[in-house]
Amino acid sequence: MHARARNSAAAPAAEHELTIRRTFDAPRALVFRVWTEPQHLAQWSCPRGFTMTENSGELRVGGAFSACMRSPEGSDHRLRGVYREIVPPERLVFTHAWIDASGAPGPETIVTVTLAERDGRTEMTFHQGIFSSVAARDGHQQGWSSCFERLAELLAALRRAHQGA
Predict the structure, then answer these.
(1) Angle between the 134-164 and 28-36 helix axes, to the nearest 10 degrees?
(2) Domain holding 32: CATH number?
(3) In terms of residue numbers, what domain contains 29?
(4) 0.85 cut: is pTM over it?
(5) pLDDT digits (tens, 9 = 90+) for 27-68
(6) Strands 76-87 and 91-99
(7) Residues β-bridged to residue 124
(8) 129: which residues sit within 8 A by CB, 6+ positions away?
(9) What residue spans of 16-133 are helical by DSSP H?
(10) Which stretches does DSSP call E strand in the chain?
């Protein structure tokens, strides 16, 4: 009886978490760099069709970051967070909160990015939670999936540029 109660309580929590696993054809050190260097983040860390109009932060534990993404329709989406853990080149943990028009933060989630080297490729495990709703989780899944497509394209371009040099 107790196991059933624990399982039913755990199921709703899991529904409010997002995990995406992706393998990139790039070394782990490069993947970590594109996750942490502003000039690279600006190229991939918003969904396709969006542009990064602001991107600033301090890459250190306790350091804050902020960004603004502009949609194809011209609306701005602001977010901010704080780095909680930085272990080059294998792990990043940070908070993530959308900011409303009055400057107030919405619900905060925790993002954990783990990078594992596999024969010159990188296995990324991305986890974000706990979302306030399944709809919020699903919206982030769509957004991040688009971002990770752009990340794969950027990594391929950086590898080609490096090999051609």
Answers:
(1) 120
(2) 3.30.530.20
(3) 2-164
(4) yes
(5) 999 999 999 999 999 999 999 999 999 999 999 999 999 999
(6) antiparallel
(7) 22, 115
(8) 16, 17, 18, 109, 110, 137
(9) 28-36, 38-44
(10) 17-24, 51-57, 64-70, 76-87, 91-99, 109-118, 121-129
